[in-house]
Specification:
Blueprint lengths: L2 E5 L3 H13 L3 E5 L5 H8 L3 E5 L7 H11 L5 E5 L4 H9 L4 E4 L4 H17 L10 E3 L2 E4 L4 E4 L2 E4 L2 H12 L4 E3 H8 L5 H17 L6 E6 L3 E6 L1
Helix pairs in contact: 6-8
């Protein structure tokens, strides 16, 4: 049974989400605000955290940072109505592993929770206390916007870092192309699609010295970051 710590101040939405997850055999602890987040986290010991962003007292990004200081590896999903690229980046910098926008499908939410749980429990996502992630011989720091290999440090742009974070969080799994475009650009039009192709090419170049790491294209579907 997957244990989910869910913080949401909108009671009607929280009731629907909680009951839907419980009907799928999830163990849910719902909090209406984050005032007792640290104590609740330690006593409940969740497998996944689900935080609304726009809340009084403490917003979701603040909660993410607090939980990251307790457990650097716990999967965190942010729920928000905010859809600007800067908001997505702030979510990742606050310790988030995934980001789902309102209104959302409960089926999609369940898939995202399951995916993060299985990635985390299988040990495929190795994360350091500072939020950095190992990818082959590289260390990727989404907070510093850096990709390091031994003594070589590659500075990444915000967009490069966002894209690599999306691929890393679902390492060895397919990340849907439309999901990437909607998350990073807010639209899957032709111009943004061509931009995505450019950024994928750039990331492949950054990993060219490590044969273990590949970014595989699944035509008309998406991409998979393979770390052997």
């Amino acid at each position: 049974m997957i244990k989910v710590l869910y913080v949401e101040d909108e009671e009607s939405l929280a009731k629907i989400v909680k009951e839907s997850l419980q009907s799928r055999s999830f163990d849910i602890l719902h909090l209406s605000d984050g005032r007792e987040i640290s104590a609740s986290f330690r006593s409940f010991q969740p497998d996944v955290c689900l935080f609304d962003v726009m809340m009084p007292v403490k917003d979701g990004f603040t909660l993410g940072k607090e939980i990251r200081s307790i457990d650097p590896n716990i999967p965190i999903i942010f729920i928000t109505a905010r859809n600007q690229t800067t908001d997505v980046l702030e979510g990742f910098q606050s310790g988030g592993n995934d980001y789902i926008k309102k209104p959302f499908s409960l089926e999609e939410l369940i898939v995202r929770i399951n995916n993060l749980y299985h990635i985390s429990s299988s040990g495929r996502m190795v994360q350091h206390p500072d939020g950095a992630v190992k990818i082959g011989n590289y260390t990727f720091s989404p907070t510093k916007l850096e990709l390091n290999c031994k003594e070589n440090i590659k500075r990444l742009s915000y967009r490069e870092s966002q894209l690599l974070m999306l691929l890393t969080e679902r390492k060895n799994q397919v990340v849907n192309r439309k999901h990437i475009l909607d998350t990073l650009w807010g639209d899957d039009n032709f111009f943004n699609s061509r931009n995505l192709d450019v950024y994928i090419t750039k990331l492949r170049q950054y990993f060219r010295d490590d044969d273990q790491v590949q970014i595989i294209t699944l035509k008309a579907v998406g991409y998979r970051l393979v770390d052997e």
